[in-house]
Amino acid sequence: MATSSLGFRPSFSVPLPTRPPPGTAAARGSAAAAALRPRLLLLTPLCCSTTPRNRGSLGFLVRASSSSGPSTAEALKFKSIPTKPVEGQKTGTSGLRKKVKVFQQENYLANWIQALFNSLPPEDYKDGLLVLGGDGRYFNREAAQIIIKIAAGNGVGKILVGRDGLMSTPAVSAVIRKRKANGGFIMSASHNPGGPDYDWGIKFNYSSGQPAPESITNEIYGNTLSISEIKIADIPDIDLSSLGVTTYGNFTVEVIDPVSDYQELLECVFDFQLINDLLSRPDFRFIFDAMHAVTGAYAKPIFVDKLGANLKCILNGVPLEDFGHGHPDPI
């Protein structure tokens, strides 16, 4: 089986539209971009994968726009927060992983997020669409608010966030592709343990749903060494606990069901009727241990509601910030 350009072996090949990585020559040429039509979609298991102090203000105001549905339309104010480089923000294709206490240091996460925006051509995010989700580990809730505000401060038009900040790694990829987003943030340290004394991580996937290539992560790191300001929107924390739309000026946050788009993709890849027939057999039993990870958010909708399994087949199905002091995903 052929490997992808990033060096890993695809599990399935499904024709899906994509755009080249941000910042490349192909991304700036519509003809070249239109010619790129890779047939790669990584389908991995569901389990795989301190707000900065406001010390300055640009002080300008944007008139609020209207929005339909459950929405709050208010003015959008921007602030510029002076900062300075911090050590240890070397980024790989798996993103940036550190102890939670490191990310909680003043401006540590904010610096990295701003450095990422500084690394991308404006046309790759200005008025664009981004996706945000994570595995539910400790610090995700606070981090999501920081990411949302900095995205707004840098001119992003809209962010799709999984309810409660939850969205598995392959689901983020699927949503990016289906919604034709410019990219997405994944708040996860993969199999590393979660909790106040353990690990946290973040990575950026570009418009194909794949992790940002080394050319981009190297540029992010370079910008962390010279960063001097953080552009941030002065907005309240967004309620991520229920589906809905919140609008400030030209910036919108939509809280979405983290399961539906990914489940739709799974139904295109796997024979759900055949699986349903298996689960309906009286001589077949199975147990799925979600291990209090993000898998728990997907287990009931897919196994029980869609495939007809008994609810008792799901163990530890509630995502917890410390994964119940266990391993964050099945191995």
From TrEMBL:
Protein's UniProt keywords contain Chloroplast: yes
Keyword field contains S-adenosyl-L-methionine: no
Domain Alpha-D-phosphohexomutase alpha/beta/alpha residues, every copy: 89-229
Localisation per UniProt entry: Plastid, Chloroplast
Principal cellular location given in the protein's record: plastid
Subunit architecture: Monomer.
Protein name: Alpha-D-phosphohexomutase alpha/beta/alpha domain-containing protein
